Every structure is written in C-alpha cells, then in structure tokens.
C-alpha cells in the first residue's frame, strides 16, 4: 500500500478552469453570480411593483397592457436586461450543478450542450419578441385589436 504524495505548498498547479495568462474563469463566474443576483432583485421587484402594485393589479395585465408597456424603449430595455441576466444567471448555476454532479465526461458534455442550446433559443426568441412586438399590426380587424390602437 502506497502513501499518497502531497505536493509542496508553493508548487505550481495547473487547472482546467484557467485561461492562458492565469485568468481564473470560475472566479469571474462566481463574481458574476453575486452581481447579477443583486441586479436581478432590483429588476424583478421593479417589475412586480409596476405590474402588480401600481394601477389595477393583476387583473389589468392583458395584451394591451404589455403592448403599451413595450411601446416604451425604457421598458423594452428593462425587460431585456431581466431576461438576459436571469438566463445567464440560471445557466451559470445549472452549469455549476452539472460540473459538480455529472461524473462521466460524456454525460457532462451532453447536459451542458443541451443547457447552452436551451439558453440560446430562449434568449434569441425572447429578444425577438421584445423588439418585434407589434400590438397594432396593420390590416388587422378592428374587433381583434386592443383599445390602445385607436387612441
């Protein structure tokens, strides 16, 4: 039975999470999680206050409400930041869980590929919806359009 060899305390260690030049990507991922978490709390509480507390509450949220809100670039950017930060934050968290619990390399690669694919599809489609949303499409019947189209 052999005794495990403990490396010298100041021995150079190479890690797979370091980029060339000694930049530790996991440290940046950890830091991003803290910063994005704080920003998400502010964005989400602002979103909830505007949508649920101010005005008539949840009963007022309909197609016209969203159309009126997204006619402002401010709310488009707000919702876009919330989407991107939440998706990056969540994807980074799930990536960490996959790295911690998926023991086989093939399983880890497959799960992370599916995760990144879901991330890209959700962010691309969400971004397209936010910036191409048209509450009053030309040529639509008047009885199908919300009241904001006639003001």
From TrEMBL:
SUPFAM superfamilies: Fumarate reductase respiratory complex transmembrane subunits. Pfam families: Sdh_cyt (PF01127). GO terms for cellular component: membrane. GO terms for molecular function: heme binding; metal ion binding. The keyword Transmembrane applies. GO terms for biological process: tricarboxylic acid cycle. It is found in: Membrane. It is a multi-pass membrane protein. Its cofactor is heme. The chain crosses the membrane at residues 28-54, 74-94, 114-133. Pathway: Carbohydrate metabolism; tricarboxylic acid cycle. The keyword Transmembrane applies. InterPro entries: SQR/QFR_C/D, Succ_DH_anchor, SuccDH_FuR_B_TM-su. Keywords: Electron transport, Heme, Iron, Membrane, Metal-binding, Transmembrane, Transmembrane helix, Transport, Tricarboxylic acid cycle. Membrane-anchoring subunit of succinate dehydrogenase (SDH). This is Succinate dehydrogenase hydrophobic membrane anchor subunit.
């Amino acid at each position: 039975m052999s005794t495990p060899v403990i490396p010298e305390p100041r021995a150079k260690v190479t890690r797979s999470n370091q980029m060339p030049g000694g930049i530790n990507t996991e440290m940046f991922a950890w830091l991003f999680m803290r910063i994005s978490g704080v920003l998400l709390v502010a964005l989400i509480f602002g979103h909830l206050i505007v949508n649920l507390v101010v005005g008539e509450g949840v009963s007022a949220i309909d197609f016209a409400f969203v159309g009126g809100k997204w006619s402002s670039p401010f709310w488009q950017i707000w919702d876009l930041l919330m989407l991107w930060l939440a998706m990056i934050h969540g994807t980074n968290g799930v990536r960490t869980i996959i790295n911690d619990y998926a023991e086989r390399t093939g399983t880890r690669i497959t799960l992370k590929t599916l995760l990144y694919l879901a991330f890209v599809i959700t962010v691309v489609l969400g971004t397209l919806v936010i910036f191409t949303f048209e509450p009053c499409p030309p040529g639509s019947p008047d009885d199908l359009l919300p009241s904001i189209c006639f003001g």
